[in-house]
User: What shape does this take?
Amino acid sequence: MPEGKPAGVRCVQLREDLSCAIFGDPRRPKVCGGLQAMREMCGSGPPLVARAFALHYLQDLERITAPGV
Ligand code: SF4
Assistant: This one.
């Protein structure tokens, strides 16, 4: 997304299975490749629980960084 991904807008590289279509590709934004997962982002528990926790965390980031918030 040449102008960056606005908060609340689905990334054009996000596949239906929620994987990144350009993972490992040099065109992937630095902010994406540089994101280091921390326990507070993933919680604890089995992988499916951690995944749900992380998705909720990302949704919160989208919400609190949306323009006008
Ligand atoms: S990792 Fe970055 S480029 Fe890939 S889908 Fe997520 S926001 Fe888009």
